[in-house]
Amino acid sequence: MIKRRQLLQFAGATTAMTLPGFSLSLSRRPDYDYVLTAEPTPLNIVPGGATPGLAFNGQFPAPVIRAKQGKPLRIHFINKLSQETTIHWHGIRLDNAMDGVPYLTQAPIKPGETFDYEFTCPDAGTFWYHPHMHSIEQLGKGLVGALIVEEADPPAFDDEVIVGLKDWRLKKDGNFMPLSEPRHAARAGTLGNIATVSGTRLPTFSVPANANVRVRILNMDNSRQFAISLGENKATVLALDAMPLPPQPLSVQALGVGMRLDIGVRTPAEAGVEIPIYDVKGRFHQKICSLRTTSPIRRSSPPPLPALPSNPVSEPDLTAAETLRFVFEWAGAMTPVSKSGHVHHEFWTINRRAWAGMHTADLPEPLAELSLGKSYIFELFNATPHGHPIHLHGLIFKVIKSDKRDITPFFTDTILLEKNERAQIAFVADNPGKWMYHCHVIEHMKTGLMGYITIS
Length: 456
Ligand code: C2O
Ligand code: CU
Ligand code: CU
Hints:
By secondary structure, the protein is mainly β. The chain contains three helices and 30 strands. It has a six-stranded mixed beta sheet with strand order 10-9-12-17-14-15, with no helix packed on it.
């Protein structure tokens, strides 16, 4: 059994001094105030030996950051890595300056330096955080964590489980194998060989019997796409990428890299019942973790599962929207060598252009320049034989159409485009700034499938 809730130390926000006449600094104090350090950390993933990981606050899984919808959050970040980094708050519609993208929104945080991230989360739900530099290595070695934004008016669940999915590429002795192999980067991405769920291999989470449990499932892997199912057991889909959906029974939900799924489970009345969670591949159900009931909550039966309140995302005006087209393509095996002798693989393009990583301060042109307040439709075409979870920073968009499936329009921050799929997303360009727009298979992004848009 593992601990499900890990609370970070608060840096004193709740014990503010209340000396009369000294309220000056208190008014500037955020409601949620954390200290987060990225540092090399030996991790116990395989029995053979320690893994030379990178971790937040010396632990994997990383601390769960909890914030409250509409309340200011500050994270004092300390870089104790030997590399530059920045931290990105995936899915949060925040101020552009806090988005954590090197060169685009802030200078890289050098080893030994600190940076204060301060923002307010307008939307509630399941989000996550990760570096946006040297991503194959920094995310691949452990720098990924859950960011939970609690509803301003929280729905009543009896318990909550965080299922953080991340695989590792390890040798028997615990050391890393190469985290990226060009032949895989040019296809579906380099997969790990050891799966962990919230830091443990095949964990069992204890939950009360006769209860309503909220399960937050986060795909924080570099490359792996999941298809989540509870098999014979019933669950209700509550939200995808933090955005509430009309409650519907879970059958199989595809979960691309970076995506999150919230489900509600009504547990049976008896203790000791196992409820497995699976990753489905065709007809094969691979168990990734389980819930197991402990003593029941005393009542005749749990009340109906609470629905999640909707988030305050603006409705795009489809009649006035301008349509922009984006084609995601496989570029072939291009391996240009830069002047400095570095090899930059370019396997993928967006609108015929590859962006092989942020190695310099020379930014390419934006993929599109949008006007603040206007509605847009992005027509996305995946002209490749691989799936791509396409993610847009700083905005929540509505998926309105696809030529591969029936769409009941829904809000999200990442759309998992199937091979050869053509889809439409729409949104109001209501958050000014420079926003990354990329595939979240980390190697795809690092070998070309990355760009940004501007809103001004
Ligand atoms: Cu998780 Cu650029 O995003
Ligand atoms: Cu993001
Ligand atoms: Cu991709």
